[in-house]
Amino acid sequence: MAFKKMWLNINGANRMFACDPVKDSLADVLRRLGLTSVKVGCGIGVCGSCTVLLNGELVRSCARKMARIDEYSEVVTVEGIGTPTNLHPVQVAFMNNGAVQCGFCTPGFIVSTYALLLKNNNPTREDVREWFQKHKNVCRCTGYKQIVDAVMDAAKVVRGEATIEDIKVKLPEDKEYYGKPLVRPTSLAKVCGLADYGDDQELKMPSETYHVAMVQPRLAHHAKILRIDKEEAEKMPGVAKIITAADLKAAGGSNVMAEANFHERSTVRIPSRKVLAEDKIYRYGDVVALAVADTKEHARAAAAKVKVEIEKLPEYLNFLEAAMPDAMRIHEDTPNIFCEQPVLKGVGLDEPSKVAEVIEEAPYSVEGSFYSSREPHLSIEGDSVQAYFDEDGYLTFQCKSQGVYSSISRIGNCLGVPTSKLRVMMNPTGASFGWSTNAGDLCLAGAAAVVMQAPIALSMSYEEHQHFSGKRCPCHSNGRLACDDNGKIIAAEFDFGLDHGAYSWGGDDCFTKQARFAFFPYTIPNVAGLCRVANTNHNFGTAYRSYGSPQAYTLSEALMDMLAERAGIDPFEFRWRNIGRPGDTNINSYPFRQYPMEEMMKIMKPYYEKAVAEAKANDTPEKRRGVGLAWGGFNVTEGGTDKASAAIELNPDETFTKYDTYQELGQGGDIGSLMLTLEALKPLGVTPDMIKLVQNDTKLCPDSGMSGASRTHYMSGKATMAAAEQLINAMKKPDGTYRTYDEMKSEGIPTKYTGSWSCTSVDGLCRLDPNTGIGDPSPSYTYCLNLAEVEVDTATGKTTVVRFTCVDDVGKVGNLAAVNGQAFGGISHSIGFALSEIYEDVKRHTNIASCGVPYIKDIPDVINVIHYERPDEVGPFGSSGASEAFQSSGHVAVLNAIYNACGVRIHEIPATPAKVKAGLDAIAAGRKPEVPAKYFLGSDLYEELEDIKANPVKYEGEPDFFRSLGGSTSEKFF
Fold first, then answer.
1. 118 phi and psi, to 5 degrees?
2. 721 neighbors 876 (Cβ within 8 angstroms)
């Protein structure tokens, strides 16, 4: 390699450096110079996170080699636009419009905005959207709306029509902060490019840190491992060791990740996942070894030299293949279909087949088969973990995790380090949306640190991350729905086959969501349903926002529209007639915990009527317009034994420190915690500047639980209230005034208090019965009613969502900007799920662009979110959950709108232009569009339900069930 000395004018100053002009990108050089605002996400120039100005023009610096850059070229990064003490209007606008969530894409957007305003300081909203589309700036969190809002505000300041103060959020003088759009505490560092994410941490680790690369053979989805040849790799420059499973075992680890059953009917008896594959490859992204070297480049070069000899085995890449009677067992201890949950109600409880009779004798009935795809999370930041032994001997992980404590329990004994000596803390995190609930990356990093007994940094290319991280479970489903002459639903039948991929952990929890959210929130008197989950050889299923429920709505909300049409009833009216009302029960035979449905539909009705009228007015043969509805919702908390803790401490300067694990992944863990603390300490007259947050470090913070299941604000909020109550009571004097820190100390009164709260305090919670599906597992729910307006180009089949409206019930809104951000972001993911997002072809679906990530023009600028703020009966300060419901069913609103527009119903998502065009062509030729035949999901539905009825299992554990497998801890870790 030949180095070259170069000069660039960077942020106004001439900088000299050496580089390899052939290998180094501009991003590589800038980051080596310490300008880590330049984030590398995709690494191939399709995400825009690395955007900089080069000689006055925007470039994606990860894809611009130094050989193509002239010496003394001028480069501008965020560091040259504004600093924490001298912010540019664009930075201020982003902070104050809720345009900063995870923040990983933010520097790229700010540079892009800065360049736009240099060329055009009076852009329209469409100008802004065209600019970001052209320059491929992708945000996965915000749905783009708040970003465009920020650009418009910044432009006012740049033009002199507003001041910086004019565009800032004003703090309320009455100190009533709760519900107001206060600025996120972490946003300042993010808009200045000073938040150090995973790869930034690696770049700045001490020089003695080893670098680790995965050996991910990517040879097959299913194979026996015959031999791992590391001889050549170990001779590569800078290599310290090639680690295999044998090395981890020799260091005292079991190499087996902790696992458990969550359901009595699970047939899994042996943990399904190893840290390093040693006997078999179960999926394309399995890792067989780790290359450890002195630099990242040396580690990656060595990893490429490891040779893996395999013997291919049959590959079952979806539920339908794995469920065939002649399919071999993927894991020897269990059939491929490893758990089932029936749902029976009404006559179905007496005899499941009676539901079929009701349907067949009904005045109106419909049936259909549907498929929800394997949706990738597509966070812009990939995966990077640092691991080392800290000053107290803890094996410490700096990482991305949605549950720092649950990660410890999932690691279990696989590394040979007691869980009491594991410490997990979050780096500033570029989103996750669910994939970081799985601790497989921590196990790899920990294995390297344990074997080497040295600090290490593990990072993945985006393609490696794509194949390593889990995905939303695909799902095949069959269903029927029937109503009477008055349009009242009288019976429902469903059969779900959930593909949980190569590893079973969590599958027997995820599939219960279909058993709860099919036909939510309607009341149906007679139900016969079955949910099945199977292992396949595709990527494993993991959490993703609205975990498990979108698959349910894919079937149920399509059938609702189909039955409304069959009965000749408007789809809005049909839903109005069938929503749950006080006293009505859900499909699990319990009353709904809340009944906001009527009021939400009343709020939506004028939006729906306007949308229908506009669709008719704007409909043309070339551009068909349509409107679609979908009800959705999700549970709040993880169930009857969910618990959380938080601590508040009074400091010597009369400020307060809040300790919790409200994991911040962009959803607002920082601002959520701040809002809760401000409200809980309101009697003390605290202001935002009086609260310091210490978060997401298991060594310093109590366990607030996982950030998922729309639970964190709810559960952590209740714990915060308990901690604040104790502290306030301790500070309170007999005369009603409050003690100072010095007075507390002089009287020997503690200044720090930990509060805890558990769902066990809520009466009546009970799990789903494994034999009937009867149960009431959650104390609260969130609700969404979605309305999508689309345009279908009949020449190409391309669908464009032109407007989207969502009426929600998330209880009292804690922070308006944060909740709106969750809504806009969830809706954008729903649109992507409906139209483009997929991870199926492992050779092709390697980056965010090929997987169908929505760019800004794929998401409408007009997204109306209307909060029906009905205070939750149990939640903190009337709040409930927020995030999950916004991604539960919006995709079906889009699909229903496509059908309404052009008569093509897409049964298997995504609704690509090719699929829609094929349907249009069939209609034009006088045929019906092709629909899937009824799926074979392993057995006949009613025969399986009868077998379950004849062979009931013992109902174990109330209100929770957790059975550890292998040598894993008995502590519940999910």
1. -65, -35
2. yes
E strands within 233-356? Answer: 239-243, 260-261, 280-281, 289-293, 307-312, 337-345
Structure tokens at 592: 């709904």
Contact 146, 820 (CB under 8 A): yes
Q: Which amino acid is at 873?
A: E
All residues at 6 or more sequence positions from 561 whose CB lies less than 8 Å from its CB, including other chains: 571, 628, 629, 896, 899
CA distance 805 to 831: 12
| The pLDDT of residue 969 | 59
Dihedral angle over CA of 844, 543, 475, 321, nearest 10: 60
Bridge partners for 86 per DSSP = 83
Catalytic site residues? 884
Intervals of the chain under pLDDT 70: 958-959, 967-974
Would you give the DSSP letter of residue 174? T
Instruction: Decide if 152 contacts 97 (C-beta within 8 A).
Output: no
Local structure of 69: helix, strand or coil: coil
Q: Give the Cα-Cα-Cα angle 166, 169, 170 (nearest 5 degrees).
A: 85
Report the Cα 837 to chain-centroid distance in Å: 14
pLDDT tens profile 231-272 = 999 999 999 999 999 999 999 999 999 999 999 999 999 999
Instruction: Tell me what pLDDT residue 971 has.
Output: 59
| Radius of gyration of the chain, Cα coordinates, nearest whole angstrom | 28
CB neighbour list of residue 634: distance below 8 Å, 6 or more residues apart: 517, 546, 547, 549, 709, 710, 781, 782, 881, 884, 885, 888
CA dihedral 179, 182, 185, 190 (to 10 degrees): 120
Whether the CB-CB separation of 546 and 888 falls below 8 Å is answered with yes
pTM, full prediction: 0.98
| Distance from C-alpha of 654 to C-alpha of 671, rounded to nearest angstrom | 21
Q: Helical H runs in 425-474?
A: 440-452, 462-468
Q: How far is 793 from 861, CA to CA, in rounded Å?
A: 19
Task: Look up residue 335 and give its two tokens.
Answer: 């059939």
**Cis, bond preceding 474 (omega within 30 deg of 0):** no
Phi-psi region of 588 (alpha: psi -120 to 50; beta: other; left: phi over 0): alpha
Hey, what are 398's tokens? 């700096």
